[in-house]
């Protein structure tokens, strides 16, 4: 589940999906001649160990199926911090989080391309080290905004998630979709799996509440 705003790719689960081995935040990258999009564990230079990778399409489909089922059966909380009035003090922080997520996706893709060019003997400008430094700065800024959101929303009554979520999902903006996911799911971990088709049992989800 991705879209593009101002040339920046943005993804549904960015920020809440982690490696089940080294616990690093997964990033998105494209592999192969068909440029298939994957969630992947970053390299050691970026805080990971290249432990796991899984197709974005497969993971998003699994998570959405679980969310829709939880909402339809009433097993999920009926409250989500997805609708906020204009005067809501968290709004600037959520807008900053959306912007930073888009920038991080773009910077990560640029860094991956620069790293490949350097392995092939090239000297890209900016270098992969410069781009990774920018990634680190953006991540720190995003963390500050997330802390502020958590502080401002503590104990507040959140807006309800519609029971017909499956029906209207495609009509929602990506920001709205991400807010609903974040309201229901605290953490997703991708664990290694053997050879063969996508294994849903290797995806572990920690729900909120």
Descriptive account of the structure:
The protein is an alpha+beta fold and 209 residues long. It has one domain. The protein has five helices and ten strands; from the N terminus they run E-E-E-E-E-E-H-E-H-H-E-H-H-E-E. The strands form four sheets. It has a three-stranded mixed beta sheet with strand order 3-9-10. It has a three-stranded antiparallel beta sheet with strand order 4-5-6. It has a two-stranded antiparallel sheet with strand order 1-2. A hairpin with a 2-residue loop joins strand 1 and strand 2. The longest helix is centred in the middle third of the chain and has 29 residues.
Q: Estimate the helix proportion, in percent.
A: 40-55%
* H/E topology pattern: EEEEEEHEHHEHHEE
Number of domains: 1
Quickly give the structural class: alpha+beta
What's the total helix number?
5
Low-confidence blocks of residues: 1-9, 77-84, 154-159
State the total count of DSSP E strands: 10
How is the main sheet built?
A: 3 strands, mixed
Question: What's the Cα radius of gyration?
Answer: 18 Å
Strand content: 15-25%
How many angstroms does the end-to-end distance come to? 25 Å
Strand order of the largest sheet: 3-9-10
Which of globular, elongated, flat, extended, rod-shaped describes the shape?
globular
Overall average pLDDT? 82
């Amino acid at each position: 589940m991705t879209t593009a705003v101002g040339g920046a790719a943005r993804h549904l689960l960015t920020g809440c999906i982690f490696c089940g081995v080294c616990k690093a935040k997964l990033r998105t990258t494209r592999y192969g001649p068909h440029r298939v999009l994957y969630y992947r564990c970053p390299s050691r230079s970026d805080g990971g160990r290249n432990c796991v990778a899984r197709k974005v399409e497969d993971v998003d489909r699994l998570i959405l199926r679980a969310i829709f089922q939880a909402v339809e059966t009433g097993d999920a909380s009926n409250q989500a911090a997805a609708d906020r009035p204009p005067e809501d003090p968290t709004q600037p922080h959520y807008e900053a989080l959306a912007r930073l997520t888009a920038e991080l996706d773009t910077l990560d893709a640029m860094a991956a391309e620069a790293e490949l060019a350097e392995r092939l003997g090239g000297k890209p400008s900016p270098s992969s080290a410069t781009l990774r430094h920018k990634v680190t700065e953006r991540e720190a800024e995003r963390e500050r905004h997330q802390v502020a959101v958590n502080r401002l929303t503590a104990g507040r009554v959140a807006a309800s998630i519609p029971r017909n979520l499956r029906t209207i999902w495609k009509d929602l903006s990506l920001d709205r979709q991400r807010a609903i996911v974040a309201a229901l799911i605290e953490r997703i971990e991708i664990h290694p799996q053997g050879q063969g088709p996508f294994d849903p049992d290797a995806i572990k989800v920690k729900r909120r509440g």
